[in-house]
Amino acid sequence: MNAPGAPIGLSLPRLEAGEKAIGTALYTGDMVLPGMLHGAIVQSPHAHARILGYDTSKALAVPGVRAVITGDDIEFRYMGLVVKDETAIAKGKVRYIGEPVAAVAAIDAETARRAAQLIEIRYQPLPAVTTIEEALHDGAPMLHEDFAKYAKIYDAPVGRGNLLAHSIATQGDPAKGFAMADVVVEETYTIAAQYHAYMEPCAALAAFDPSGKVTVWSSTQSIFRTQANLHECLGLPMTKIRCIAPRVGGGFGGKSEATVEPIAVLLAKKGRAPVRLVLSRNQDMTAMRTRHPGWIRLKTGATKDGRLVARDCELWFDGGAYADDSPAVMNFALYFVRGPYEIPNVHCEGYAVYTNRMRAGAFRGFGNPQMTFATESQMDALAAKLRLDPIELRIKNALPNGARWFGGQAVTESTLVEALETARTRAGWDKPMPPAPPGKRRGRGVAAMAHSSAFLSTGAIVRLQNDGTIAVQVGAVDIGQGSDTALSQMAASAFQLPVEQINLATPDTDSAPYNSGTNASRVTFMVGKAVGEAAFKARDQIIEHAAAMLGVKRDEVSLAPGGRVVVTGGSRHNAEVSFADVAARSIWAVGGPVIGSSAVMASHAMDQGHTKMSGWLSFEAVGIYTFGAQIVEVEIDEVTGAVEVTRAVCVHDVGRAINPCATVGQIEGGFAQGMGYGLCEEMVFEDGRLANPSFMDYKIPSALEVPKTIECVLIEKPEASHPFGARGIGEPPLVGAAAAIANAVADAIGKPLTRLPLTPERVLRALLAQ
Amino acid sequence: MTETRFHAPERLEDAISLLSADEDARPLAGGQTLVAMLNADLLSPSQIISLHRIKALQGIERRADGSLRIGAMTTHAVLARSGDLRGAHRLLGEAAGRIGHEAIRNRGTIGGAVAHADPSADYPPVLVALEAVIEAVGPKGKRVIPAAEFFQGFLTTALNLGEIVSAIILPPSPAEACTHYEKFARVEGDFATLSVAVALWGGGVRIALGSVGPVPVRSAEAEAKLFAGQLSDGAIKEASAKLVAASDPIDDVRGSADYRRLLIPRLVKQAIRTAQAKDAR
Q1: Fold (topology level) of A367-451+624-768
Q2: Distance between terminal CA atoms of chain A?
Q3: Which of A344, A349, A560, B255 is a Cys-bridge partner for B259, taking CB atoms 3.0 to 4.6 Å apart?
């Protein structure tokens, strides 16, 4: 698997650390092309309105303006992952406040911005529905009159107004299960919209070449999803669309699908020049995406000895004005309705609803953080009612190895019990906490979690270069999490080379094999797997060449560190050739260039006999299940209700840490973002208008809020299906964080809070209500 | 197309004449609000008049009567660390140290912050509590305005067209005064959900609240009750009731008006007790 000395398990510095530290890293917004124009957008002031017409004359009269585009410049062509319901720019109607409705290209950004303000758009305001409840009223205005006609990849609830998706699943016999229960707990959990808060706002640069092919550099999590969306909404064949990702400043799910690329392409076409469009923070916060807000009603039955016997769940997600990933996110949330536990009887129904609000989409955890907040809060409520230790209750019900996941797939390796026990020991769970200082209350809480890694397909091409170094082509974008380094380490390991001898190509749809995206905790797992498989194929070819060159049999040579193939044993013992020698033979004499390629896809059948599901997207490609546990200590200020997280212990099964430092970084960052979700982050919408569209009013935790040390413990049980033993860790650290914090707060004040975020005001009111 | 012109005069008179000739011109002090507003497209001034080269706006000076004249271009970072702030004046340094983050404090100035008059900013309640005087310079010359009259409403001050804040003058303070600036915010660096500025000395109690109304809230009755009741729990309770009555908070993303009213007695008590504890040290 991994040869000694190869760079797996080493905390090598990020390959791009230097350029990021000194500021020379090239992001989309830093790129300049000759003759490049600057774009600016106009956003809808209405939550719902018909567009009656445009007057662009004043904007076009501004010196320096080269193009104005509106809905009149496009046809009704739709893009979308699961429902094709979105045009390149608003056409016919606007459906949320902030929706891009026109755009300008001009010789500089200032001129473009000023000209954008001069575009006059005539609207006929329509009644808006800005909450789930309003959207479902009889006679509520429809956002998408053509919903029935849209292309969809799931069984959608056509003819039910603004209902976008409705999914049902049943396992076992829930009625019988509840009849067996000695105790039943039921609660409704309310969750808020969170902003992705990536450091780099959405940005794209589009340039047509003389042949009519457009190249798009953008801040994206997926060059291939960008290409697909551009193809769908603009009608260009993929032969005429090339997508490239330069450095990307974060994504967290918000850049999984198209952002501003379609607008940049339209402007570049009409302006006959390259156009760069970079959103301001305010525009990004009002035009792009949120985590799904909504509510979850959850009911659980258990026997008096603490065995979970039945669960019932009803989940409602506000999807906003366009479907984006909503049906998938809602389904994924339901997929975790049991948490990481064995519950034999389950019924759940989930709904996603169109509303006149900015779309909700993929966001680190993909519905699981919402569900885990509900399920793990409920586990503590149950533990309290049963007078059982919360960790004991969790261990008692932990899904064992070989058990079936909700939906019927087999779980090959469950490390939940190990994670819980490790966290318990590390946090000193069985010992009392030191007493709280005067005016404070102290609490401790746990959350267990599971998540998947894999989802969808990918490929890799690995080539031996003339000088004996290795070129790796993948379509995966490093969005700041460090996958370029991890993939290079894996490739280097396969060839026993130092990482400096690996050239990981910039993601480019013109040269990379397909990859679905940097999401679903999948790059290290899936792309790493593809790199490994392709590298091993190339390595086999190198060995074959070397054996022929050395005049020995294949099994008489082996790879040696530093790009050599050495004879082991026999009369030619220690004779060797270099990778460069092999490359020369392959390209000048025999066999042709050394190229290994691979195509991988996770596929595990669902089982309708185990869980009966309707209205669901397929989860056959969901991949492997990964477990973890977090314990959090909090201090609550009795004067204000403010919650301080004083300690966090995060135990996660990572299979094998390819780069332990980067792995720990993922866990720390995930926990911090989960802390924001739990304590302070909430996009406040008032009649569809975002009340806090800036970092002045929307607050994420800073270094001053997170605990000084987030104690990360890695469980390393190499994953059998991965060539280097890795599992994904991008999302798991966030998934349970809010739940662990909520349980710690409940412990401190003696009462659970069921609404996120746990603002000081909500906590103080709960304290005073006692 | 309008263009924004930039000037950086060395003489105060030149800045004033540029500003008074054009109501769309804006003075630039530390830029911590102005530049953010420009970036957010909330403001498009015709001219930006930078004040950073004007010597008359700089420096901290202790005057013969014991009062302190703080030049408008003095940064929050300088005030947070200044040894010139003694007695009740320390309240100003405490508040300066709680503004935004270090990078903001290194650029932001007291004159800019005071002229902006954000009701949730940190200086206004302190200046009202200390009975500071705002020195303004305009086309008609120099005048002084008591802080309580200077802050007139949300982002609204007593400044006239072409006038800028040139200095903040803190009246003499008893050396034995003890102070506390209690700021409660969602996270470090945020604007206050509620702030309480307290100064105590043998002959007096001063207390003012920020972020619970369009201007800082101070109540003579509240201070009288605190003084008469010798800062007992009962006196604090009564005084807090007066302050709640004088406040006019709004609902916003930092907290509801009700929550702010709920916090007033709790944080007033905490601020007073903390100030006293500092005195005991």
Answers
A1: Aldehyde Oxidoreductase; domain 4 (3.30.365)
A2: 58
A3: B255
Residue ranges making up the domain that contains B41: 5-47
* Per-residue b or e along A741-768, where b marks 16 or more CB atoms closer than 10 Å to that residue's CB: bbbbbbbbbeebbbbbbbbbbbbbbbbe
- Please check whether residue A676 is in contact with residue A625, taking contact to mean a CB–CB distance below 8 angstroms: no
Most A CBs within 10 Å, among B250, B253, B258, B268, to test the A interface? B253
| Same domain (yes/no): B198, B135 | no
- Looking at the fold, whether B201 and B273 belong to one and the same domain comes out as yes
The token pair at B90 is 């320390």
Instruction: Report the gap between the CA of A115 and the closest CA in chain B (Å).
Output: 8
B230 touches chain A (CB under 8 A): no
Distance from CA of A519 to the nearest CA of B (A): 29
Residues 256-275 of B with CB under 8 A from A: 256, 259, 262-263, 266-267, 270
* Residue B44 with chain A: CB contacts under 8 Å: 114
The answer, yes or no, to whether residue B42 has pLDDT greater than 90, is: no
Give the amino acid at B94: E
A31-126+199-250+255-287 and A367-451+624-768, same CATH topology: no
Q: Which residue has the tokens 């429809």?
A: A142
Supply the CATH classification number for the domain A17-23+456-601. Answer: 3.30.365.10
Residue B2 predicted with pLDDT over 80: no
Name the percent of chain A lying above pLDDT 70: 99
- Banded model confidence at residue A505, pLDDT cuts 50, 70, 90: very high
Nearest-by-Cβ selection for A63 from B1, B187, B255: B1
pLDDT in tens, A282-336: 999 999 999 999 999 999 999 999 999 999 999 999 999 999 999 999 999 999 9
Determine whether the interchain pair B1/A64 forms a contact, defined as Cβ–Cβ distance below 8 Å.
Answer: yes
User: Can you tell me the distance from the alpha carbon of A525 to that of A543, in angstroms, rounded to the nearest whole number?
Assistant: 26
CA distance A37 to chain B (A): 17
Question: What total number of domains does chain B contain?
Answer: 3
ipTM for the predicted complex comes to 0.95
Note whether B266 contacts A684, CB cutoff 8 Å: no
- The mean of the pLDDT values for chain A is 97
Q: What DSSP line would sit under B226-250, residue for residue? A: HHHTTT-HHHHHHHHHHHHHH----
Task: Please give the Cα distance from A634 to A62 (Å, whole number).
Answer: 57
pLDDT score of B164: 98
Q: Which pLDDT does position A455 carry in this prediction?
A: 87
Do A510 and A461 contact (CB within 8 A), yes or no?
no
Helix, strand and coil in chain B, % to nearest 5: 35, 25, 40
pLDDT exceeding 70 applies to what percent of chain B? 99
Instruction: Tell me, yes or no, if A58 comes closer than 8 A to chain B by beta carbon.
Output: no
CB-CB neighbors (< 8 A) of B187 in chain A: 680, 699-702, 704-705
SS3 A538: helix
- Provide the pLDDT for residue A368: 98
Question: Does a structural domain hold residue B184?
Answer: no
3-state SS, residue B71: strand
CB contact under 8 A, B267 and A640: yes
Chain A interface, best mutation among B43, B44, B259, B267, by max A CB count within 10 A: B259
**What integer pLDDT is reported at residue B281 of this predicted model?**
58
Q: The domain A31-126+199-250+255-287 is classified under which CATH number: 2.30.110.10, 3.90.1170.50, 3.40.50.170, 3.10.129.10?
A: 3.90.1170.50
pTM confidence score: 0.97
CA geometry: angle A668, A674, A677, nearest 5 deg: 150
